[in-house]
Amino acid sequence: MIRACSASARVRSSACCPWSICSQGGVSGPWEGRSGLFPDDLNPALRRPRLPQLPPGSPREQEEEHEDGPPPRHQSPRTWPRPGPRPWPHPWLRQPSREGSIQGSILGSVQGSEIEILQYLMMDFAMRYFRDAATRDVSKLVEHTEVPISESLIFFLDPELKELAVQSFLSVMMFMGDLTMKNELSEGDCIKHIVLLGKEKEFLRDEIYCQIIRQTTNNPHRESCTLGWRLLNLVTGFFPCSSTLKPYASRHLRDISQNPTHPYQKLARVCEDNLKRSLTHGGRRHVPSHLELDALLAGRSTRRFPIQFPGGVEFPCKIRSFSVALEIVQELCFEMGIQDPSEVQEFFIHATRGHDGMVRPIHPAEYLFDFLLDDGSIGLSFRRLVWTHPLTFPNDIYIEFHYHQVLGDYLDGKLLLPGSDSALSKQLAKLSALQHLALGLQHQPSAAELKDYLPGQTGGSTSQKLLPSCLSQLAAMASLGPSDAKRAVLDELCSLPLFGTNIFMAQKVSQRTCPSPCVVAVGQEGVLFCQPKTQVRVFVIPLADVLSLRSVRPKKDKVPVVEVKYGSPAHPKSISIHLKQAKELCHILAVIMEELVRPPINSSISSFTEFTH
């Protein structure tokens, strides 16, 4: 087993894999129940590994808590349908030769056998894919060196990849202190160079992984090795390795993370978790900010950040550098007593931009630190967007959360009470009395207090007229405690026609039957277009009929526009919605579509960079 930073535990090829190349010209390893030195051509399974040859011009890419502490074990309830970019296979595996076919020969034939426990060591990977594996001692190619490389470790045909690999190794060595830092460079510059290479050149990712693993294996300098492990922590979180390297890198990290005597056991566990996330979700989208980078270099990978619940209550959460939104959603839902994975998927973290108030739901697979800017201009909140599951009231936090979210929509005038004037007055008085009881107040409310319990569009004189009826309702419901009063409010409001939808007010809609202004509600039934005064539906686009959507940048002094294509793919129709929150509507409709309709729709909405900058 390859051991990092242990000078006494040198790697010997004959002990680390079921077969190894010997200087005498044969192959040492097990064969037909025996072990020893056998001729090369005795058994195909014992032949020297040959790298497949490709024609010149191989395919190229198209364009605060200490981290040593054990990370939380978050179990994802399901694999999300949008996991981010998938790792490309290596250039040399695009057209493998018969003799060089790795997947179908040794690895495929030994799974489930006793030999499997000896598979996937980094030295095995080096034997198969390193350019110098046939001419040099392979054990030296997978352990620390103080001499810069002149060519890539992995066999590349592309000259650009060879050169970039050399530059990457120089940055790794300078960051770790194995090479004198150039005057104009800093540790941060080295990290950004490495991360950007991995983000922009997918075929170079395995090379970067192998370089850092090499420099942290049998490294005699503890300070250098610690920096190398912190660099590996960054790299495993920012981009994944390929499916070819995955079993080897995973085995390397797992062996160390399960060794209680290894000095970097905890960091290996962090890297192991980061790699699992990046393989699932695609890795971070942007290089770390200056503040985050400084914290990571100091060994701090966690930040306590407040997430605002409906009603303004802030719930402090520990967010790690490579936490995805789903993990935090799961934590918050657990606090509310929600454990059904399908119900958890109905809740979303939202990012709010400070200078203009733009709101964007964060996809479960997105990394939260990609949204948190150094200037603190991005706030996070938590809301329910989908309401397919009925309300269950398992605990007080659940009741408080849903009460304030639904009540907020009611007081903002988004949920209108139906009925005649007399019935409407009775409902207004009842809901006002319940809100008073929900606050735990014992005194009778004044007309001024009653005004705070009424929707915003209600006239000022209404509170005085409703006061007698409200006091009568209070007397009849005096026995209700705050929690029961909140549940009663939810029971009243959840029967309204637009309950469970995300409601916007559009200035105009291109559909002739729609009024101007027009209420646009997005929910599980689709996109609803309603009369603003009665919320009576005038037009509906079912979710299954939505083909695509995009937000259009407004011209000067104009309102942004959302364009929705719907209907038959052969003969699509289009509708334009003019409203200030065009991007927010686009994002919300997109995540609801992805949750309730498979496959997700095509959408062209504001990019991440556009939102954070």
Note down, in words, how this protein is organized.
The chain is built from 20 helices and 17 strands. Mean pLDDT is 82; it is low at 1-65, 69-117 and 604-609. 36% of the residues lie in helices and 15% in strands. A 5-stranded mixed beta sheet has the order 5-4-8-6-7. Strands 10-16-15-14-17 form a 5-stranded mixed beta sheet, covered by helices on one side. A 4-stranded antiparallel beta sheet has the order 9-11-12-13, covered by helices on one side. The two termini are 47 Å apart. The chain folds into 4 domains: 119-300, Alpha Horseshoe (Serine Threonine Protein Phosphatase 5, Tetratricopeptide repeat); 305-384, Phosphatidylinositol 3-kinase Catalytic Subunit, Chain A, domain 1 (Ubiquitin-like (UB roll), Roll), CATH 3.10.20; 417-493, no CATH class; 502-612, PH-domain like, CATH 2.30.29.30. It has 613 residues and is of the alpha+beta class.
Which CATH C-level class of the largest domain is it?
Mainly Alpha
Q: What is the radius of gyration? A: 30 Å
Query: Into which percentage range does the β-strand content fall?
Result: 5-15%
Class inferred from helices and paired strands = alpha+beta
